[in-house]
Amino acid sequence: MESPALYLVDVRIKTFKKWPFTDKDKCNIRNMAEAGFYSVATGEDDADAAKCFLCGKELDGWEAHDDPWDEHKSHAAKCAFVQLGKKENELLLSEMLSVIKQYMVNEVKRVAEARKEKIDERAKLVRRQCMTRK
Ligand SMILES: [Zn+2]
Questions:
Q1: How many angstroms is it from 121 CA to the middle of ligand 1?
Q2: pTM of this structure
Q3: Which of 65, 78, 84, 92 is most buried, by CB atoms within 10 Å?
Q4: Which pLDDT tens digit goes with each residue over 23-49?
């Protein structure tokens, strides 16, 4: 399965379907996406759940006056995107490429981890079947 190109600000913007704040608020969709966040909301209860595309930090409980960059900084100071501290259109090409590369490395790790879990599950099942056969 191809994963969405969440390293692009426009792709992140499109993930915000039921964001509770308006464009007039500091904590608006554009500012969220520019600070690296995309929505991971699944319904009304977690409408403001957002995650960083690069470090994976998930935050909720946002308030209208929150500055997404400040929140990202204070909760994930080590994030490579926070350390660059730039909007997508301010990034140098080399910086953008390094962001994309890191995103892809993270994705590969995530997929590998999920696959390993599946294999472990299967191994457990087979072991159980062998035990009951004795
Ligand atoms: Zn981050």
A1: 31
A2: 0.85
A3: 84
A4: 999 999 999 999 999 999 998 889 999
